[in-house]
Design a protein that fits this description.
Length: 380
């Protein structure tokens, strides 16, 4: 789409945004008021094109702030580049930090009237159900919402998952040789003593869930044996792949990866008949967002077939997007425990007990967070 909008089109789009905001309180009584409005039967799925949504975002002010869960700032580089190419007149500020810091940061900003992000995209799944109950999320269904797997979306449109992330272990192909580990059970073999890097399970809830699956499958004796392997623990779920890629260790545990990777140096393991874990990373527009039109553009873009088909790990959150050859939809793989992770995340008391128990085996978490200390209002 040409970015050379006429003054008349921009003024018309701006007026539309203003009218939409003014009519927000009465949209439910006017089913025909807009394609993405709220009707008496709930929130309608978006029907506007990306180009039309882009016009509205430009008219709104051309800015978008995203709080993205992650380990290091560079994890948002691909999104920033693709967004800038597709929507050059909407400036994207993507702030990467641990989800467990982003969520309380948002809570504090809301409590102090200093909200920064428009969209939150986090691993802390329990926050989205809580924020919905508290009325803090804008109910909205981007185009393609009806095709999202039912376990990956809120039926009322408060949030939707926008990508599949999976955690397992990986290894250096040359270093592991012909006896490479095929399952988590193999990780406690004596030949891997001093050869393992791992992210702290008691610092990251997704890694915690992965280790809880290992414990339930193989017992606490497996946990003790894993501790006896003298693993190198570090903060950040990216740290195991960094250690393996840098030839510091042969195996990395508690990290994301791709079962369809073409790398000849490292292999991320998708075990058969043994546990790994996967989930749908949730995203939502905050009701008090300064740039809701840009937030809507973002959700439509990341959920589009084009973006979903380009998934780095071969999985999509959409049921109408075929996984990469050799894969089935992640929700059809019982080893992924897709339904278990959301339930796990809701029981915060059990999580705290489990964290402290793993600390007894592995020691306390040490080191600064991998994204650094970002403070109260990053992205402002």
């Amino acid at each position: 789409m040409s970015t050379d909008f006429s003054r008349r089109r921009l003024l018309a789009a701006g007026a539309g945004v203003a009218l939409a905001g003014a009519a927000a309180g009465t949209a439910s009584a006017a089913p025909g008021a807009g394609s993405s409005g709220t009707s008496a039967f709930g929130v309608r799925e978006e029907t506007r094109s990306l180009d039309e949504l882009y016009e509205a975002a430009v008219a709104e002010g051309g800015k978008l702030v995203l709080y993205q869960g992650g380990d290091v700032d560079s994890q948002a580089a691909g999104t920033r580049a693709a967004w800038a190419q597709r929507f050059p007149e909407v400036e994207l500020t993507a702030v990467v930090d641990y989800s467990k810091y982003h969520d309380v940061r948002v809570d504090n900003q809301l409590a102090t009237g200093t909200l920064v992000p428009d969209v939150v995209q986090l691993q802390t799944l329990q926050d989205f159900t809580r924020w919905k109950r508290e009325g803090k999320l804008l109910r909205y269904k981007p185009a393609g919402f009806s095709e999202v797997h039912k376990g990956f979306k809120d039926p009322d449109g408060a949030w939707t998952a926008i990508q599949v992330i999976a955690f397992s272990f990986l290894y250096d192909v040359a270093g592991a040789g012909s006896n490479a580990p095929k399952s988590p059970q193999d990780l406690v073999d004596s030949r891997w003593k001093d050869a393992i890097a791992s992210s702290y399970p008691h610092d990251d809830d997704a890694v915690l869930y992965l280790f809880s699956l290992y414990q339930k499958t193989y017992g606490w004796d497996w946990v003790a044996k894993f501790a006896a392997q003298n693993p190198q623990f570090a903060r950040g779920s990216n740290s195991p792949s960094v250690a393996v890629g840098g030839k510091q260790k042969t195996i990395g545990v508690g990290t994301s990866g791709s079962p369809v990777s073409t790398s000849t140096t490292t292999k991320w393991v998708l075990p058969e008949g043994h546990p790994f874990m996967a989930w749908g990373q949730r995203a939502a527009i905050l009701k008090q967002a300064a740039h809701p039109a840009a937030g809507k553009l973002y959700l439509n873009w990341v959920l589009s077939e084009e973006r979903q088909k380009g998934s780095f790990n071969g999985w999509s959150v959409r049921t109408d997007v075929t996984p990469s050859p050799g894969l089935k939809p992640v929700w059809e793989n019982p080893d992924a425990h897709v339904d278990g992770f959301p339930r796990f995340m809701e029981d915060r008391a059990a999580i705290e007990r489990l964290k402290q128990t793993f600390a007894l085996y592995f020691g306390e978490v040490k080191g600064d967070p991998s994204p650094g200390w970002l403070g109260l209002h990053p992205g402002r």
